[in-house]
Amino acid sequence: MALNKLNIVFLTNLPVPIGMAGTNRILSLARGVQENHADATILILNPTEPPPHVQNTDTTGIYKGVKYKYLTKTTVIPDGKLKKMYHFLYGLHKLLPQLKKMHNKNRIDGIVMMHTLSIVPIL
Fold first, then answer.
1. Which of 43, 119, 41 is nearest to 85 (CA)?
2. What is the pLDDT of residues 51-108, one digit of tens each?
3. For residue 111, how many C-alpha atoms fall within 13 Å in the half-sphere facing its CB?
4. Of 85, 78, 73, 6, nearest to 43 (Cα)?
5. Is there a contact between 77 and 85 (Cβ–Cβ < 8 Å)?
6. How far apart are the C-alpha atoms of 52 and 21, rounded to whole Å?
């Protein structure tokens, strides 16, 4: 009897794939999941790159074997508070349909949230 691979999704607001300690932490966790014969995907909920110093330009990709996707379809943080809030809410709005789509394709067994904003765990 063959066992299905576990499917773990990581949710974050950290920049991926290039970033600092938090980025390295989530990538290490995702790679560890994959090394233990499970699937791992990182979903980034909002833009992470302040202009003009944009390091991450790809909104989807695979980095060191880990799939990632920016739900806002942009990595660049917009100017203005209203635009920033729009992108934050847009990312949250896109989250459930994305999770449902992923779950229908390959059952999601676990969700790990690594977020620097305190409001997200409340939601």
1. 119
2. 998 999 999 999 999 999 999 999 999 999 899 999 999 999 999 999 999 999 999 9
3. 16
4. 73
5. no
6. 21
